[in-house]
Design goal:
By secondary structure, the chain is α/β, with parallel strands linked by helices. It folds into two domains: 236 residues, Rossmann fold; 145 residues, P-loop containing nucleotide triphosphate hydrolases (Rossmann fold, 3-Layer(aba) Sandwich), CATH 3.40.50.300. It is built from 18 helices and 24 strands. β16 and β17 form a beta hairpin. The structure holds adenosine-5'-triphosphate and magnesium ion.
Length: 504
């Protein structure tokens, strides 16, 4: 197991105006589980894109099984036995699950005819191996992000790689899905597949790694055997400073009720007879942090998006804002009434990926910086600079195209965009997904400040420690129903899981 299978030496990669990698070294042994960690923007994804043939213009050398290797493209890298599951999903929304899996390598008969029966059979086999209850014919757009991610994983595994790269595979998965992914990885390892794994979840890194390489600012800090590295040392090398406790002490004083929701329901978008949220009642106080916990399919995101006006036709019940009954029929109305929503799906709800960091942040506050028909550029610049600084967004300028930011930094732009609207009620749906541990603690501090200044916060999170440490009260959902609302103080993971799994 100590044989080197891959070496990347002195890798340098520049984008216009950005030196993403500045002499990175990476050494991978055959059959090991090797984790790659580092802050948002450290260069992890870029390095893996070079290894998988996405980027071919770089400096430095790659040795595969001792042979100097230059990949001419993705296909070429796949042929050499390297496959990658990208951080951002690369599926085509309008195509079916099986078409996505076999895109570019459709099984054919009679030379040019796509062999659909064969494709269906193969796909069924793959899906069942991973215990995935998905039809091969289902269009991708009908699947949850977690399921889409699983399809992406199945697709990569179907390529029978010797080296498999996972770039943040679990950030969009539920706990259940993540566990089934870990089982798959275990079985691949038994077959001798080498795993390179990127994640911001420290538990995963310590649970599975044989060795860990830390990157910082485009350079290698070093490689450690897992047993020689503890959590605090890893974090210190990653962010370049000590972080004693990532959770701040919150001293907010929830006051009068701002939002009251009664008998709230949301119909299933495709199966009208079914409700994904049903009979939910709760109150939210000024300056309060209300955590929402629940398992996958509990209806948490649907509740959040629907309160934000995303599905006016499918939802019902009563909503009172400061005692006045309101109807929100669109996100636009929600924004005007003081709501903000940070969603888990960056591409669908959060960002316009082709626009600049600045434009993305100011789009929702355009009415504040517009004088007649002219946009006051100075005001725009000020707002953007403020949030780039306070969120420590790693971008060369405000004009930088958002798509070119690292995944975690894109998430911070979404947060900045909603903070700029100065919302009265801020709904956060998995706000720290894909965010490094240093930035997480910054986001917790922002949540603290907001709540202490009287902003009411609804925070959905699958990371229970986050819910436990930040919430004044915790609302727990199970299969669309409100199972319990408990005080944050004295709450435990066990208690939350008890209600989340349907206990009374
Ligand atoms: N296509 C691109 N054009 C310009 N700059 C880019 C491009 N892709 C990445 N970068 C820059 O390169 C640097 C490294 O980004 P990379 O995506 O590799 O970070 P990362 O370590 O994967 O971060 P994260 O944990 O947030 O995913 C960042 O500063 C990023 O903005
Ligand atoms: Mg990345």
């Amino acid at each position: 197991m100590n044989k080197t299978i891959l070496e990347m030496n002195n890798i340098v990669k520049e984008f216009p105006g950005v030196r993403a990698l500045d002499g990175v070294n990476l050494n991978i042994r055959k059959g090991e589980f090797h984790s790659l960690v580092g802050e948002n923007g450290a260069g992890k994804s870029t390095l893996m894109k070079i290894l998988s043939g996405v980027y071919t213009d770089y400096e430095g050398e790659i040795y595969l099984c001792g042979q100097k290797t230059v990949f001419s493209g993705i296909r070429n890298a796949e042929k050499a036995g390297i496959a990658i599951i990208h951080q951002e999903l690369n599926l085509i929304y309008e195509l079916s699950v099986m078409e996505n899996i076999y895109l570019g390598s459709f099984p054919c008969k009679l030379r040019h005819l796509i062999d659909y029966p064969k494709m269906e059979l193969n796909t069924k086999e793959l899906l069942s191996r991973f215990e995935l209850d998905i039809s091969p014919w289902e269009p991708i757009r009908n699947l949850s992000i977690g399921k889409q991610q699983m399809v992406e994983i199945v697709k990569a595994i179907s390529k029978k790689a010797d080296i498999l790269i996972f770039d943040e595979p679990t950030s969009a998965l539920t706990e259940q899905e993540a566990e089934s992914l870990f089982k798959i990885i275990e079985s691949l390892r038994k077959k001798g597949v080498t795993i390179i794994y990127i994640s911001h979840r420290m538990e995963e890194i310590f649970r599975f790694s044989d060795r860990i390489t830390i990157l910082r600012d485009g350079s290698t800090v070093g490689t450690w055997e897992r047993k020689n590295l503890d959590h605090d040392t890893l974090v210190k090398h990653m962010v370049g400073r000590e972080i004693a406790d990532i959770y701040p002490r919150i001293e907010n004083h929830p006051a009068e009720t701002v939002l009251r929701v009664e008998n709230y329901y949301v119909h299933h978008p495709l199966r009208p007879g079914e409700r994904v949220v049903d009979g939910v009642n709760f109150e939210l106080k000024k300056g309060e942090i209300l955590g929402i916990a629940g398992l996958m399919g509990a209806g948490r995101s649907e509740l959040a998006e629907s309160l934000f006006g995303a599905f006016p036709a499918e939802s019902g019940g009563e909503v009172y804002l400061s005692g006045k009954k309101i109807h929100i029929n669109s996100p636009h109305e929600a924004i005007k009434k003081g709501f903000g929503l940070v969603t888990e799906d960056r591409k669908r709800f959060g960002l316009i990926t082709g626009l600049s960091v600045g434009k993305n942040m100011t789009l929702s506050v355009i009415h504040k910086i517009r004088k007649f028909f002219l946009i006051n550029e100075k005001d725009e610049e000020n707002i953007v600079e403020k949030y780039i600084k306070s969120l420590r967004i790693k971008t060369p300028s405000t004009q930088f195209i958002v798509n070119n930011l690292s995944g975690g930094n894109q998430q911070k732009v979404i947060l900045g965009k909603w903070l700029a609207t100065e919302p009265k009620i801020l709904i956060l749906d998995e706000p720290t997904r894909g965010i490094d541990i240093g930035a997480k603690s910054e986001i917790y501090n922002i949540i603290k400040d907001l709540s202490e200044r009287g902003v009411s916060i609804i925070m959905i999170s699958s990371e229970l420690p986050e819910v436990l440490r930040l919430s004044n009260r915790i609302l727990i959902m199970h299969k669309g129903h409100l199972q319990a609302i408990i005080p944050g103080e004295g709450a435990t993971q066990e208690k939350i899981m008890h209600y989340a799994t349907g206990g009374n």
